[in-house]
């Protein structure tokens, strides 16, 4: 019990691998007491494109080496600037803490950056966070980013879609019951049905130009199609494009996997969407 209580108090923070500092320009700023990492190319011209990136990790884990490798590649292949917030993680924090940081951060960013040059990206839990953030700022009629790219987004922490159990037989990375525990912790006492926790429940009418990359061997895949259906019901189906990859697993573009061709295809598609 002492170990569990101690873990509950830990403030997990992202650590930057040394290789990122060697291959990219890295600037660290503070925002509301947390780190904001700004990554720019070191050996090529910098473009005007800014990418606000939310990493995945079931809301409990910091950005991994694989996340940093992916960001490093994006920066050096496109010349874009990536802004990576080290947002609060559960179990010490919950969704309220996350949005108390990310909404003001978004407002500050769009005061400095033309949204025509702003792209939001996120993977897994970070993809769900990115979409919910856009829904939240949409309620304030704030400008939307030019593009949004979501990789294997977690759209509903309740995981009640009956098709998930069928996909679970093929998913070698995620476990439904384990994920649900993380989702409950992130939701806190009152958020389990909130759209900020489950953006599948949110208003989609303010969103624009969203691309979702998803694999058929990912238990989060069925909810992507529910989101598309809801977008069509809300008369904005054309704003959400789904790019589905047969037999691809969860965030296969970022994590090391055995199918290099699928990984390469997904990454090349992202470069195309960013252009």
Protein described:
It is a single chain. With 275 residues, this protein is an alpha/beta fold. It has one domain (2-274): 3-Layer(aba) Sandwich (Rossmann fold), CATH 3.40.50. Helices cover 39% and strands 18% of the residues. It is built from nine helices and eight strands. It has an eight-stranded mixed sheet, with helices on both faces.
Question: In a nutshell, what does this entry contain?
Answer:
The protein is of the alpha/beta class and 275 residues long. The protein is 39% helix and 18% strand. The chain has one domain: Alpha/Beta hydrolase fold, catalytic domain (Rossmann fold).
On the 0 to 100 scale, the average pLDDT is 94
Low-confidence stretches: 1-7
Please provide the count of β strands: 8
The CATH architecture: 3-Layer(aba) Sandwich
Cα separation of the termini: 51 Å
């Amino acid at each position: 019990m002492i170990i569990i209580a101690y873990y509950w108090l830990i403030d997990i923070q992202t650590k930057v691998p040394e290789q990122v500092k060697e291959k990219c320009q890295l600037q660290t700023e503070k925002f509301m007491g947390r780190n904001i990492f700004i990554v720019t190319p070191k050996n090529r011209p910098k473009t005007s494109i800014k990418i606000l990136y939310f990493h995945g990790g079931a809301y409990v884990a910091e950005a991994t080496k694989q996340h940093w490798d992916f960001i490093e590649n994006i920066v050096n292949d496109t010349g874009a600037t990536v802004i990576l917030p080290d947002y609060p993680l559960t179990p010490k924090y919950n969704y309220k803490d996350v949005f108390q940081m990310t909404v003001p951060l978004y407002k500050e960013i769009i005061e400095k950056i033309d949204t025509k040059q702003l792209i939001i990206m996120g993977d897994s839990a970070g993809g769900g966070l990115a979409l919910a953030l856009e829904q939240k700022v949409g309620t304030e009629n704030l400008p939307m980013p030019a593009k949004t790219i979501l990789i294997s987004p977690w759209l509903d922490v309740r995981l009640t879609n009956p098709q998930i159990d069928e996909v679970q037989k093929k998913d070698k990375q995620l476990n439904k019951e384990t994920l649900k525990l993380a989702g409950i912790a992130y939701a806190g006492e009152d958020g389990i049905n909130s759209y900020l926790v489950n953006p599948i429940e949110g208003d989609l009418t303010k969103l624009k130009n969203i691309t979702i990359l998803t694999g058929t061997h990912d238990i989060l895949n069925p909810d992507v199609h529910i989101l598309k259906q809801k977008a069509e019901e809300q008369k904005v189906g054309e704003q959400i494009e789904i790019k589905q990859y047969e037999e691809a697993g969860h965030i296969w573009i970022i994590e090391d996997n055995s199918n290099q061709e699928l990984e390469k295809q997904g990454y090349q598609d992202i470069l195309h969407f960013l252009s």
